[in-house]
Amino acid sequence: MRFKPDLAPAHAVKSTKDWFTKKQLEVLAWPANSPDLNVIENLWAIVKRNIRDRKPTTLDQLKQNIATAWEAVSAETCDKLVKSMPRRLQAVIQAKGAATKY
Questions:
Q1: Phi/psi of residue 26, nearest 5 degrees
Q2: Contacts for 46-52: CB closer than 8 Å, 24+ residues apart
Q3: pLDDT score recorded for residue 31
Q4: Number of domains in the chain
Q5: CB 101 within 8 A of CB 88
Q6: What's the domain range around 80?
Q7: pTM over 0.90
């Protein structure tokens, strides 16, 4: 099994590396400044904008706004994000791994 690191500091500590070794998980080499091709990041951005626009002032409001924001994400939006992957990959290839508009 393979693991794609997200470059979180916790994934670089010795105890975590030892755990991956013990579990026989291969950690893929991943450049520190690689383009983010994970469409969930775009989905999170949509949800965060929706929440921020509502300007919650209490924890209860924030919880409700999060639920409302997730419910507002349409299947069409998710489908568009997934279907954008070939364009994203092509942009990364053309940029030779450098930053893209994605």
A1: -85, 125
A2: 46/73, 46/77, 47/73
A3: 64
A4: 2
A5: no
A6: 32-101
A7: no
